[in-house]
Design a protein that fits this description.
CATH superfamily: dinb family like domain
CATH architecture: Up-down Bundle
Largest sheet: 2 strands, antiparallel
CATH topology: Four Helix Bundle (Hemerythrin (Met), subunit A)
Number of helices: 8
Radius of gyration: 18 Å
Order of helices and strands: HHHHHHEEHH
Distance between the termini: 55 Å
Strand content: under 5%
CATH class: Mainly Alpha
Helix content: 55-70%
Oligomer: single chain
């Protein structure tokens, strides 16, 4: 059976995310990587730790659980990567994310997922029954949400200094610098 179109689309998106993240971080000034746009908001370094940790403790363990017959997912600690990767540089975290993502994509390919697989389910600790299709789509959407987040943080880090041009940037107009 041929690979389902959603699986192919998700896979392409997942494969691009490390390059996109790397491009954003490579262009960032050093002080922006530790910058918080608001109290309690994540820094770019924390976002990187989160996405790298998710490659270990979130996506693939849940996919494997579904493919093994379902059952309850282990709750995901969204800030667990902050501890796992404490002290890591942005460059090291980008490399870690890319390496772990490539390994997960290789594993995903070996599953040879088809349409019937996408209907298989697992039990999310908060949402209840979810399908593999929903999980895969969420994985890709999660990447893009963090790309947006990183872009926003870095835009605002530069945006603190743009002066009157602020009015031309909706991402700056809707934000009050601390």
């Amino acid at each position: 059976m041929a690979r389902h179109h959603l699986v192919a689309s998700v896979r392409r998106s997942l494969a691009q995310a490390p390059r996109i993240v790397e491009g954003l971080i490579a262009a960032a000034p050093a002080d922006a990587l530790e910058w918080r746009e608001a109290p309690g908001a994540w820094t770019p370094i924390e976002v990187l730790a989160h996405i790298a940790d998710g490659e270990i403790t979130d996506w693939m363990p849940r996919i494997e659980r579904i493919l093994a017959g379902g059952g309850r997912f282990t709750p995901y600690d969204r800030e667990g990567g902050f501890v796992r990767y404490r002290g890591w540089s942005a460059e090291a975290l980008v490399g870690e994310f890319g390496q772990r993502r490539r390994a997960n994509l290789d594993k995903l390919d070996r599953f040879e997922l088809t349409a019937p697989h996408l209907r298989l389910t697992g039990e999310h600790p908060e949402f209840g029954t979810v399908t593999l299709e929903q999980l895969l789509a969420t994985w890709a959407a999660h990447d893009m949400a963090h790309v947006v987040q990183l872009s926003r943080i870095l835009t605002r880090a530069f945006g603190r200094h743009v002066g009157p041009w602020r009015k031309y940037f909706s991402v700056l107009e809707q934000w009050e610098p601390a």
